[in-house]
Design goal:
Shape of chain A: globular
Number of helices of chain A: 14
Oligomer: homodimer
Structural class of chain A: alpha+beta
Number of strands of chain A: 19
Chain lengths: ~425, ~425
């Protein structure tokens, strides 16, 4: 396949598998300016799938940076006029939502972390119906990446810009199984492999997972009663299957928010809204972060932890083998969408309604009662290493190997 | 000056002379995607001038075209969610508004003219406070151009894309006096030249103008009582001087809407929202278009004329000498912003509050009573030729030459 054919195939995959557009539906695309040629292809594919209308909300790292540099914290804590109206109206009418990312990891380096934090807080408050429609499965949504010059230069710092962009595109295509034959069929096979692993995990019904490696991670994370694992896509409220993240290699659930004990050491840097955090660790007691440190970006971590009352509790634990295609590429993408699929990870903040039976019918209090954390924050960080061991603890005290040396233990089919 | 220096100087000119940004003010920039590098320079200059915040509303010809091709007329007659909220809120807080254009003249070729017409109608209805703030001088606003590939290829059809874009940028710089010394100073001198011609026209106090040329134009256009001429910029409500169009070479006013008699033959094609009209003419009786024809795009003209009750009456007559820099370049820009400054022109639709003393204090009925047309439409078309004669008619019947052979008559200082 030529580059142009792969790009079109990727747009088709995003529209058909990512957001599963149905005839008559509206589509909202969120995208950075430098991805415009790809956005136009996605719009064409969306109309070809029967979309009624396609609306694009553009962003630009340089303009965002200028905004943060020249406006005070109060102004940063306001949504731009009309943004919430657009997002909420489209989500309430059931629009499919495609988020395209291409972020320069250093875009906000040196910006006072309080400013983007204030913005994200305002965004979540004013666009609450928009975010709720995605979390609850009322609409199909998907997050995908597209190569832009600044991001490409960060991933391939030694290469000239054009070459770096071309290399990043090829890496992206590989992560989403575009380039050899029918990508939609490849994703159907991918889905079936997930279903087997999830069936095994659900059958084990572990009450906790114990993580250990030489980097210093030694933590036991409790799981909610009758925990449900997910991965490889999800069904929206109307039954349509869609992949909310592309790529996705993780099998995941939410831990019991009050039962994490021990220390976890990050195995990769964290890029949070354009700010980098390196060499960091968290210590948990009764589920809560009681200590933390970082060689770089400690204040960024503090900002996340203090964002709301429950930002210090875990919302996600995800299992990704060291043999995943993304892990084997050995690239640091500086973007959680990719990097989380190269490594086992946790997330601080909000948990998933899918982690307990009937979770999507529960309100915030109901979910909290089941141990599913509730927060405006959801920040992934990586802990997987090639020597990571994960042991499942059963209700009767039996201990079952889940991961050995960074990969699925023998006997876990996929 | 290098290209980059000229581009920065142009951005500075747009911000300081076009929208006259004052410290603490918000700025709204409307721009096509392909002008992003220039938009970022404008944002930098706006912050440098003390802007409190800069918001950009992006557009894209290809996505607009896809929208019109795939959505029905009903959907086309709706503003995108949030757009009116953004525009109206910013205008009501006194934001400066910079519109950057770079339109492919063939972008909408073949699109059912009813669709863009329905959209423009919805836009004017829902964004009424936004448009009113500009018309009334409550905010400073400016319309400028920026070279993009599609537009450049239309202006220079024989050249490779890169070269066409470079040539169009140089042409734009020339029209806005950027490239030799301090462009802001050049615009101050330009303003003084306008003031002399306007003083002469106001002193004559013509009751009508008679236009004649060999192309077939023979029309007399009445002027309102104590007509006021304008040009070369205007003062906003707070006294700040700004140039609403850059370039601008025209001295203009509004005719008495009920006193046009005769036929006017267009001397250049009209590009209306991406549709081209060629070789067209209008015949007026008692101010109203009673007959019209076009070799190409007749239905586009009909759409304009039928848009509302007063779209068939004139709102503007503007005087531009054949020796204007833009006229002498001999380029057809396919954009009214430039082409209207190469040629004497009229506009159908809305007239100017500046055409009569105290006009900005009058409501629609008051303006209509003074002969100033009121409409949602304002569409310029060119009639200037190298043999155009314009004769002023005084209250006492005296006839005074205003234009001879396409240029200001001898004795009109500038």
């Amino acid at each position: 396949m030529t580059f142009e054919e792969k790009l079109r195939e990727y747009a088709r995959l995003a529209v058909r598998a990512g957001i599963a557009v149905r005839p008559g539906q509206e589509v909202l695309i969120l995208a950075p300016l430098e991805t415009a040629p790809f956005v136009r292809l996605c719009a064409r594919e969306a109309y070809a799938a029967g979309a009624k209308d396609v609306v694009v909300e553009w962003s630009d790292d340089e303009l965002t940076r200028l905004h943060y540099d020249h406006t005070d914290a109060e102004a940063c804590g306001r949504c731009p006029d009309g943004l919430a109206q657009r997002r909420n109206a489209l989500a309430e009418r059931g629009a499919a939502i495609l988020s395209i990312r291409s972020q320069d990891p250093a875009a906000l380096a040196g910006v006072d972390a309080a400013k983007p934090a204030a913005y994200i807080k305002a965004l979540h408050a004013e666009c609450a119906p928009f975010y709720k429609a995605q979390r609850s499965g009322a609409v199909c949504w998907s997050i995908i990446g597209a190569a832009g010059p600044a991001w490409a230069k960060a991933v391939f710092p030694g290469l000239p810009e054009d070459e770096a962009v071309a290399r990043l595109w090829e890496a992206i295509f590989k992560t989403v199984r575009v380039g050899e034959g029918d990508a939609l069929a490849a994703w159907q096979a991918h889905r079936r492999s997930f279903e087997k692993r999830i069936a095994w995990l659900n059958a084990q019904n572990f009450t906790a997972l114990h993580y250990q490696n030489a980097l210093g991670t030694d933590i036991t994370v409790g799981l909610p009663e009758n925990v449900r694992w997910a991965g490889g896509g999800s069904a929206a409220a109307d039954g349509r299957w869609h992949f909310a993240n592309m790529p996705t290699e993780e099998v995941f659930t939410s831990p019991d928010r009050l039962r994490a004990e021990g220390t976890v050491v990050a195995s990769m840097p964290l890029n949070y809204s354009g700010s980098l955090v390196r060499d960091f660790r968290f210590t948990f007691h009764e589920g809560r972060v009681v200590d933390f440190d970082a060689k770089e970006g400690r204040e960024v971590l503090r900002g996340i932890l203090d964002e709301d009352d429950n930002a210090r509790y875990l919302g996600e634990c995800a299992l990704v083998p060291a043999t995943s295609p993304i892990s084997e590429m050995g690239l640091l993408f500086y973007d959680t969408l990719y990097d989380e699929n190269a490594s086992c990870h946790f997330a601080l903040g909000r948990g998933f309604v899918s982690a307990v039976e009937g979770g999507s019918q529960l309100d915030e209090q109901g979910l909290l009662a089941k141990g599913i954390n509730q927060s405006d924050v959801h920040v992934d960080f990586m802990l997987g290493t090639k020597d990571l061991a994960i042991t499942g603890v059963c209700a009767d005290g039996r201990r079952v190997p889940v991961f050995v040396n960074g990969n699925w233990a023998e006997g876990v089919e996929g």
